[in-house]
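Hi F.,

I've been meaning to write this up properly since the lab meeting, where we talked about keeping a consistent format for the predictions we share between groups. The idea is simple: the sequence comes first, exactly as it goes in, then the structure tokens exactly as they come out, then a line or two of notes. No screenshots and no reformatting. I'm using this chain as the first example so we have something concrete to point to.
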Amino acid sequence: MGWLFYRKPDNQTPIEAIKQACGANWIAEHFVKAGSANSAVHIVAKFHDPNSDVYVPDPDGTVRAILVFAIRQSGGEFGYKDMTESMGPSGWECSPSIIRAASELKPKTDEDCQRTWAHNYRERSLAKAKMKSLKQKLNVGDHVKLARPLSFGGVMLDEFVVMRGPVGRKRRITTVFRSVTTGTLCGIRAEHLADATITKARSQ
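Output, unedited:
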């Protein structure tokens, strides 16, 4: 479906909002686990589907699928768009704990189908989580050489030194990257660290 927007209570979390949208009866029957990451709420939901072409069912025919609710919040408005992992949504990857709570997927094939899209979604999710963990473990002074240069103001850069500095309107202290070439501070998303060469600072 498309995006649905409404005004939710200020103190209501995105997970609470999505659970409310699903309805108490649906939650009581299907809910297994919920989490939020990458501008989305993820719900593991159980269904009776013994002949599933995507999941390996439990002995009683139950499967646990990952539902993806992309979310947007702006000016007091809350919006969501519901999808499933078998639609292969990109940009709303889930955490490893959500994948662990879901049913095992049937073996991947070369066919362009829901099973393949679900496999690709989980692979992207795990890769993104790995890169996020890598970024969190970087220390000030570490040297990073990207596998592929990125454009910053039209200048292609690939070598950086890890720094900590204020970012955004709230001036939150976070990890930033100082270009070895230009000396400018740059923001690099976790996924761009894939296959990067990292040299730890000598003092560590």
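Notes:
The first strand starts at residue 4 and ends at 7.
The chain has a mean pLDDT of 93.

If this format works for you, I'll send the rest the same way.

G.
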